[in-house]
Amino acid sequence: MKCLDFLDDAAALEDALAESYGLLAGLTADPGVSEKLNRLRREEENHARIIRTGKNYVRRAPDLFGEAIISGAELQAGLASCREVTADIRSARLPFREGLVRLAGLEDQFEKIHLDSALEVKDENLGRLFRRMARDDREHRVVLEEILQRPV
User: Which region holds residue 92: left if phi is over 0, alpha if psi is between -120 and 50, else beta?
Assistant: First the structure.
């Protein structure tokens, strides 16, 4: 898979997660839970913007990136799973709590797909940025687990 295609799919994955968090935030009457989910939405939107910025680096300085470490098929399968969850939440086929459980599972699955471990990055500053995004996603799982402990 070409680096630009890989980054396109990675950004689409972040966009789908952001949409899912936003949809779930609208399904709860608990303002604290809604704010936490909206914070996760904003962070995923930011991740998508960062990835799209990374595409500019690929175009201008292609030597900053190496090969994809995971297959494009893995990334595309993860993207399909995330889009399925988003569609299920949007169509109300997925209750709030089940949506949380499925998103927590996706965050766990996507940790290995994240750019810090899925794409060889030769520039240390860019690598740090992608590692920060991976830390954010690990924190997202923690937030989801905390919400699941609440009676929502």
Answer: left
Burial class of residue 29, CB neighbours in 10 A (0-12, 13-18, 19+): exposed
User: Measured between alpha carbons, how far is 21 from 141 in angstroms, rounded to an integer?
Assistant: 12
Low-confidence ranges of the chain (pLDDT < 70): 1, 64-71, 111-123, 152
Say if CB 63 and CB 122 are below 8 A apart. Answer: yes
Rounded to whole angstroms, how far apart are CA atoms 126 and 34? 32
Which residue bears the tokens 């990675």?
A: 10
Which residues span the domain enclosing 121?
3-149
pTM for the full predicted model:
0.85
Please report, for the domain that includes residue 80, its CATH number: 1.20.1260
Looking at the structure of the chain, the number of domains it has is 1
| Structure tokens that stand for 73 in this block | 């098929």
